[in-house]
Specification:
Elements: E1 23-27, E2 30-34, E3 41-43, E4 54-57, E5 65-71, E6 74-79, E7 87-91, E8 97-99, E9 110-114, E10 122-129, E11 132-137, E12 151-153, E13 159-166, E14 169-174, E15 185-187
Antiparallel strand pairs: 1-2, 2-6, 3-8, 4-7, 5-6, 7-9, 10-11, 11-14, 12-15, 13-14
């Protein structure tokens, strides 16, 4: 199988036709950069390194690129969690994004997009003993997941404290639970580490 290492790009307007990035868009955990339909994108050098793709937001929300792959006329970045609806700017490497003919991308190397994320959910509640339960979330949670005011139980059960076990598990201490009684725990106002509100 032949391997295309690189072709000389030459100056813009040379024998090849340079091209531009058109848009960036996000879904939960991916950012896709789209190029013209007639380009088969190839990544070489710095453009293969996920750390070369960086993100900024007005609020300082942090997103990291974990993996990068070219797929026909797109580059798909696998990213850490984003804040849903947050405006971000993606900064791409200014070298190493070419098409299968060796023509280089001439920018823009900064593209704006709206963040997209799935809301965190409670995956399970485990009963530890007659006064303690653990809540396991689908994501790493923000500090407000340890705020007692965000938890409520029914049938006379009182929540007396909440503490963090790890980034996605929280221990909830209650008044004594009655054997064989059923209780509902309601959690509101908590966010994941990226700032997304619980579903």
């Amino acid at each position: 199988m032949p391997l295309l290492v690189t072709k000389g790009l030459g100056p813009p307007g040379g024998a090849g036709t340079a091209f531009i990035a058109l848009t960036a868009s996000a879904t939960a955990l991916t950012v896709t950069v789209t190029f013209p339909d007639d380009r088969n994108i190839v990544l070489v050098g710095r453009a293969l390194d996920p750390e070369e793709y960086t993100f900024e937001s007005d609020t300082g929300a942090t997103v990291r690129c974990l993996a990068v792959v070219a797929d026909e006329n797109t580059i798909v970045l696998t990213v850490s969690d984003m804040t849903d609806g947050e405006p971000y700017t993606l900064f791409m490497p200014d070298a190493g994004i070419i098409d299968s003919e060796g023509n280089g991308c001439v920018g823009p190397f900064e593209l704006g997009f709206q963040g997209a994320a799935d809301a965190p959910i409670m995956l399970m509640i485990r009963v530890i003993d007659a006064r303690m339960i653990e809540v396991v979330y689908s994501k790493s949670m923000a500090e407000d997941a340890a705020d007692i005011d965000n938890y409520a139980a029914d049938n006379g059960l009182e929540v007396t404290s909440v503490s963090r076990v790890n980034s996605s598990t929280y221990r909830v201490v209650t008044s004594y639970q009655t054997r064989a009684a059923s209780y509902n725990l309601t959690v509101t106002g908590v966010h994941d580490a990226a700032g997304n509100l619980i579903a």
